[in-house]
Amino acid sequence: MAGKSTLTKKKKTGYAFGIFTESLIYNMFYTYYLTFLIEIAGIKPAFSSIIIFISIAWDAVTDPMIGNYTDRPGVDKRKVMKTALVPLGLVFVIAWTSIGSGLSSQLAKILLYTFITMCLWVFYTMYTIPYYAVVAEITEDYDERTEIRSFSSLLNAVAVGLGNILPALVPTVAILLTPRFESNAYAVVAAIISIMAIAFGFVCCNSLKGVYEPKKAAPGESVGSIKDTFKAFGNILRMKPAKYFLVFVFFFLATSSMIQSNLSYMVIDCIGMDYDTGIVAVIISLVISMAVVVPLVEKVAHKKDRRFAAIVFLSVACIGEILIKIIGLDAEIGGFKIMCVVAPVVLGIGTGTFWTLFYSMGYDLVELDEFKTGTRKESTITALPQLVQKFGSAFGILMAGLLLGAYGYDSSGDIAGSESLIQRVTDPDIINGMENISTVIPAAMLFVSIIFVILYPMTRQRFEALMVQLKKKRNGEPYTTEGFEKLL
């Protein structure tokens, strides 16, 4: 393994910029794609959520295959990341075109957009699996891992803002494109985001020069197979911390993706603001809250540990979601719609906390698995939480779409191809349902997530005890399990 020493600030910064590639695409997709499929492509809400569920579930299936490949000796994670960048950008633009809006068959639209988004997520995974896995290879230091991820999360706040604010310009872009081409306004914004994503991706890859080297195969060492990967998944799932960690991941991502995919409807119908001004206010508040909470989470994690920080800040977010429902998303103070600030701040506390701690918590499983099996599987262990992450995200979006339909929302009155012509809902029952999708339903799932963080046994003290004994085992010295028995 390369690079056990402390990384330079320049290298950490270059690596952290790679979060823009992942986050710009991720956030535009999760916030707007359900709305795009319903309003622009003209696909019914339930079917739209199924498209997203299938494509993300497919992405989860490809995770172990890509993780297995990038874990093989001789495979250069940097080259895999570089290879994915241009195709990722191109397919992302295609996914937002209105090529399917003119089709009369719902089935034809479903098949078309399902295929496109399945391709999108393959290239996305080719970039993200090695991007996140490489940190476990370049440093084993508990605090340095937290520092790298927290700085990346701080930049992620900017990426979240860009990934959400730029698509808010769609109505303006549509006017500039004239009625003939306005249905492709999303694609124009997607092209801008793709160019940025590709550029930042190359910056990240170049920053890894000199601090990362591909694993070298030992004489007679197997390169591994997909069967070996699933066997490794089985071994990981038998580790006590992994079980609790993965359930925590699933329910948090279900929570955040449900809220995020319902954001447009929350702004227009629940808060009662114009789309243009409302979505910008929401996203700016979200970004600022993330930027504030990330260093606080890092400080608490350094002082105590990551588990404690997750419990504290996610509990605040859960209580906040419940209070928002009690007060109401349409609350005003002096005519100002306060929930365009409060609701995204609460969401930002949760997302800022999760993305600061998620991957660094997962990295700790690499050493535990190495202690048990004698081998390091950084990409495979990164792939498993990502697999669960994507199923959680897909589940949240699926539930949002199904619930929109169940509450009676029908977009047939809207004009396909123009985001600005979404009609505001007046039925109080539908509005109440939309409010539930953004508050109490995700709050219930977040509560489950917090329970499993509490049960998660990987503390700083136990990790440090594990590392002492793992180093002895690597050196062929006698070792014990003293101090981390609860991890086994």
Automatic annotation (TrEMBL):
**Regions annotated as coiled coil:** none
Could you list the residue ranges that cross the membrane? 12-33, 45-62, 83-104, 110-133, 154-177, 183-205, 244-267, 279-297, 309-329, 341-366, 387-409, 437-457
| Pfam families cross-referenced by the UniProt entry | MFS_2
Query: Which top-level group of life is the source organism from?
Result: Bacteria
Q: Please list the GO terms describing molecular function.
A: symporter activity
Q: Name one GO biological process term.
A: carbohydrate transport
CC per GO annotation: plasma membrane
Listed SUPFAM superfamilies? MFS general substrate transporter
Keyword annotations from UniProtKB, A to Z: Membrane, Transmembrane, Transmembrane helix
Lipid metabolism recorded as keyword: no
What is the protein's name according to its record? MFS transporter
Organism field = Candidatus Eubacterium faecale
